[in-house]
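Collaborator request, handled under Task 6.
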Amino acid sequence: MTFQTFVTTFAGAFIFPFLIRLLWGKMVENWGAIGGWMAAGFIVGTSWTLNHGVGFIYQTGPVWVDMAWAAGAGLFVASLASGDSAKKGFKNLSFAIIGGIIGGFILSSL
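Structure tokens returned to the collaborator:
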């Protein structure tokens, strides 16, 4: 992996949890349940397009990594950095890992 591909992969992995932490709660707070659906479409759609469509994420080999892993790890680190409970963050990280495993299994079954 070259330095350039490292930087774009790191940036791509950073953008998704950053947008979740920055926007999702505010959109739900302002617009209710429809804000959650809009956030899901906007944040996940934009991040997926940047990471997989534009090609920010650089992966080698046959292994495919789901964006849930980046979201789980990024939100866990953000929670710890803001002083939240590590226990609560670990629970969310565990669910993100389980979601990534299920997503990867479903995609590998296609």
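The cover message to the collaborator said: "The helical segments are 3-31, 33-54, 67-81, 86-109. The chain has one domain: 3-109. Please let us know whether this matches your experimental observations."
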